[in-house]
Amino acid sequence: MKNKITLLTFSFLFIITVALAQKKVKASDIMKDIKAGKAISINNVTIIGVLDFTYMDDAVKKMPIKKKSSWFNWNSNSSTNEIKKIIDVRISFINCTFKNDVLAYIPDEASGLTYTASFEDETIFKNCIFKHKAMFKYSRFERNTDFSGTSFNDDSTFKYAKFDNKISFSNTIFNEIATFKYAKFSNNVSFYNALFKDTATFKYTNFSNGVSFNNTTFKEDLNIKYMKVSGDFNITNMHVAYEIDAKYTKINGKSFNKTSIDKN
Hints:
The protein is mainly beta. It has helices spanning 2-22, 27-35, 56-62, and strands spanning 24-26, 40-43, 46-48, 51-52, 73-74, 82-87, 91-94, 97-98, 102-103, 105-108, 113-119, 123-126, 129-130, 134-135, 140-141, 145-146, 151-152, 156-157, 162-163, 167-168, 173-174, 178-179, 184-185, 189-190, 195-196, 200-201, 206-207, 211-212, 217-218, 222-223, 228-229, 233-234, 239-240, 244-245, 250-251, 254-255, 262-263.
């Protein structure tokens, strides 16, 4: 009887070990599915390898073809040298860990070209962990977007990003410098209970339909210089540890009084 119990215990532990080992997905496999037009819905897994939404390697191979491709949208404006990739399928990652970089922005110094990716359908990175870089500079999010509960452990940027629909950064943790410079939010956005452990930059950011920084904590400096807000501006229980640069900031057309923010 004891041997049977031991065998059952071993078998049970083996099954658990195998199950845990299976909870890994290659970034390259995700990229293949997107390229094949498949919607992405992944929960509770670890993604291994660089997840490149710009498909830079594919773009480089197609460069000699007079900048025409059904897979890429080539920007003919030589002053920007931007190669745009449009992700036209739904993207959903929930409770996932990204072990390597997640890139929707790659500046290639060798060629002088910049590779970017934008998202036409719903885009979800909820309760995820970005272990390394999360680059979304110049990205456009056309449908509902959700980064709530996510942790950015390395560099992250949403500089020049555009959000056309609902967007949430509630309960999000930024462990390194977070940049939203020049970002544009068409709908109300929530940073409720978000934590910025390093400098946060919202310089020139435009909130067209309100923003909530309710219960948001900034452990370092906060730069909201030239920031514009139209609509509700909720800063209840918002805390900033050090300097606030609010020069030329406009809230519904009026100058912003930074003394209304709690510094501690």
